[in-house]
C-alpha cells in the first residue's frame, strides 16, 4: 500500500517523502531565516536540524529519524580540509558509512542515508543542496517502517 502524505503549505496530495536534513551551521546560507524559508516552502516533507559541526552527528540521530518520522536522513558537511573543527566532515562520513551498513543489515536501502560534502572552491548554500537531496531521494519508495507501524496499530484496535 502506498502511503500518501500531504504538504502543509502545498495543498495538493501526492506521494511525498519526508527528509531529515542535518547540516553544519558553517555552510553558506544556513541562518535561521533561510531555514525557516525552506521549512515553509517544503512543509512537512523537510525537517531541518542545524548542528555545530557535522562531526558531532551521532549515528543514533540518523537511526532515530528513520525510525520516528523520516523516509531518508542526510547530512550536509563543510568541504574536506575546510572544517572549522579540522576533521568533523571526515568523522561524519565514517559514521554515516557504518550507519548505512547497519540499515542494510536490517533490510532498508542504503540510499535512505547520505552525505553531501560541499565544494571548497564554490560552496553551495543550504537551499540548493536541500533541493538536490530532495530530488535524489524522490525515487525511493516510502519507508516500510511506517507501513509496519500502521499495521501494528490497526491490529491493536
Characterize the structure shown.
With 157 residues, the chain is α/β, with parallel strands linked by helices. The chain has a single domain, classed as Rossmann fold (3-Layer(aba) Sandwich). 41% of the residues lie in helices and 17% in strands. The protein has five helices and six strands; from the N terminus they run E-E-E-H-E-H-E-H-E-H-H. It has helices at residues 32-42, 59-68, 88-105, 126-137, 144-156, and strands spanning 5-6, 13-14, 19-24, 46-51, 72-77, 113-117. The strands form two sheets. It has a four-stranded parallel beta sheet with strand order 4-3-5-6, with helices on both faces. Strand 1 and strand 2 form a beta hairpin. Mean pLDDT is 83; it is low at 1-14 and 150-154.
Oligomer state equals: single chain
Share of helical residues: 40-55%
- Strand arrangement within the widest β-sheet reads 4-3-5-6
Largest sheet features: 4 strands, parallel
The CATH top-level class label: Alpha Beta
Count of helix runs:
5
CATH architecture: 3-Layer(aba) Sandwich
The overall average pLDDT, rounded, is: 83
Radius of gyration: 16 Å
Indicate the topology.
Layout: E1 5-6, E2 13-14, E3 19-24, H1 32-42, E4 46-51, H2 59-68, E5 72-77, H3 88-105, E6 113-117, H4 126-137, H5 144-156
Parallel strand pairs: 3-4, 3-5, 5-6
Antiparallel strand pairs: 1-2
Quick recap:
This protein is of the alpha/beta class and 157 residues long. Helix content is 41%, strand content 17%. The chain has one domain: Rossmann fold (3-Layer(aba) Sandwich), CATH 3.40.50.
Which key features would you list for this structure?
Rossmann fold; 157 residues; disordered N terminus; 5 helices; alpha/beta; 41% helix
Amino acid at each position: 500500500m502506498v502511503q500518501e502524505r500531504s504538504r502543509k503549505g502545498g495543498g495538493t496530495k501526492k506521494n511525498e517523502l519526508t527528509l531529515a536534513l542535518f547540516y553544519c551551521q558553517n555552510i553558506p546560507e544556513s541562518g535561521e531565516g533561510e531555514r525557516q524559508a525552506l521549512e515553509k516552502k517544503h512543509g512537512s516533507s523537510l525537517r531541518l536540524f542545524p548542528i555545530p559541526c557535522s562531526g558531532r552527528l551521532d549515528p543514533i540521530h540518523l537511526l532515530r529519524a528513520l525510525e520516528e518520522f523520516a523516509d531518508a536522513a542526510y547530512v550536509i558537511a563543510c568541504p574536506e580540509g575546510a572544517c572549522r573543527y579540522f576533521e568533523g566532515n571526515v568523522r561524519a562520513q565514517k559514521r554515516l558509512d557504518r550507519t548505512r551498513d547497519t540499515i542494510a543489515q536490517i533490510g532498508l536501502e542504503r540510499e535512505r542515508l547520505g552525505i553531501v560534502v560541499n565544494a571548497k572552491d564554490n560552496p553551495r548554500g543550504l537551499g540548493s543542496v536541500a533541493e538536490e537531496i530532495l530530488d535524489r531521494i524522490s525515487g525511493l519508495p516510502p519507508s516500510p517502517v511506517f507501513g509496519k507501524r500502521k499495521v501494528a496499530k490497526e491490529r491493536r484496535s
